[in-house]
Write a structure and sequence with these properties.
MetI-like fold; mainly alpha; globular; 314 residues
Length: 314
């Protein structure tokens, strides 16, 4: 326009740099930058990714049947034919590890999903309620936390496993029972964490503003409170995955998990316990898989905790 003063090139460059900086400093990129600075979490994520790719894609690449018996290779060590060695029946341990890893990982993620969904629902209701409802839910959480988990896991599986397997089959029945039982005893920590987050966030200014504008309680939860409380829930979910894998391995090692023909990592340890002196590879390989998986998940959880904490300066 005639008579107007042209904008300064320095001002234009500064505005462009500010806009690019605003785009570059999004929450996702900032969380990723913080996560990358946590070296152990980055290494744990890499190891966990390799394990997940192995158990998901491995059976398609290593096509040795898990029940292929070869007595001539009984309790053999690592070789080109059997990279992880064999068991007492000559079955290939690599194939059984890949197959069992799928089940162990599926149990961990499914139990985590149950724990996170139930815990978030209970914690959100308790955090948004006042008076009797909040007191009753806190009492329920404390009640479940006071129960001895492992004895109850063993008792429930012992009482209901046969009925459920007769109804839907052995593999599916045991999977559903193990996932439901483990997830049913892991939601309390998530519920306490979500309740604490809701009690804090519901008094913040942006929630008060939404309430003053007429937002319903459900809209306050879904649009304002829950998105700001999701970070600790994600961290708690990673811990639940590790705990579920350990619980499934413990049940299988005690002989109360999956049937003997389903080689989960815990079942492999159970079968190998009598051959520790003559075939240590049979114990070390599934034990190392459980150890590395749980350790990696815990380190990833630590990295996510630091990355999603807005008060953390890295």
């Amino acid at each position: 326009m005639a008579g107007s003063t042209p904008a300064s090139p320095t001002a234009d460059a500064l505005a462009s740099a500010t806009a690019q900086g605003a785009r570059g400093s999004s929450l996702g990129r900032e969380a990723w930058r913080r996560f990358r600075r946590h070296r152990l979490a980055l290494a744990g994520g890499l190891i966990l990714g390799v394990i997940l790719l192995g158990v998901v894609l491995g059976p398609f690449l290593w096509r040795v049947p898990i029940n292929d018996i070869d007595f001539s290779a009984r309790l053999a060590g690592a070789s080109w034919r059997h990279p992880f060695g064999t068991d007492d029946l000559g079955q290939d341990l690599l194939a059984r590890m890949l197959y069992g890893g799928r089940i162990s990982m599926a149990v961990g993620f499914a139990a985590m999903l149950i724990a996170v969904v139930v815990g978030t629902l209970v914690g959100a209701v308790a955090g948004m309620s006042r008076g009797l409802i909040d007191t009753a839910l806190v009492w329920l959480i404390d009640l479940f936390l006071s129960l001895p988990q492992l004895p109850l896991l063993l008792l429930i599986i012992y009482l209901f496993r046969d009925r459920l397997t007769a109804l839907v089959g052995s593999e599916v029945g045991v999977f559903l029972m193990v996932v439901a039982v483990i997830g049913g005893f892991r939601w309390m920590q998530v519920a306490r964490l979500v309740r604490a987050q809701f009690l804090t966030l519901r008094e913040r200014e942006f929630v008060e503003a939404a309430r003053a504008l007429g937002a319903s309680p459900l809209r306050q939860v879904l649009r304002h409170i829950l998105p700001n409380a999701i970070g600790p829930v994600i961290v708690a979910g990673t811990v639940d995955i590790a705990a579920a894998i350990i619980a499934e391995s413990t049940l299988s090692f005690l002989g109360l998990g999956f049937p003997p023909d389903i080689p989960t990592w815990g079942r492999l340890l159970y079968d190998a316990k009598d051959y520790l002196d003559i075939a240590p590879h049979w114990v070390l390989i599934p034990g190392a898989a459980i150890f590395l998986t749980v350790l990696s998940i815990n380190y990833v959880g630590d990295g996510l905790r630091d990355a999603l904490d807005p008060r953390k300066v890295m």
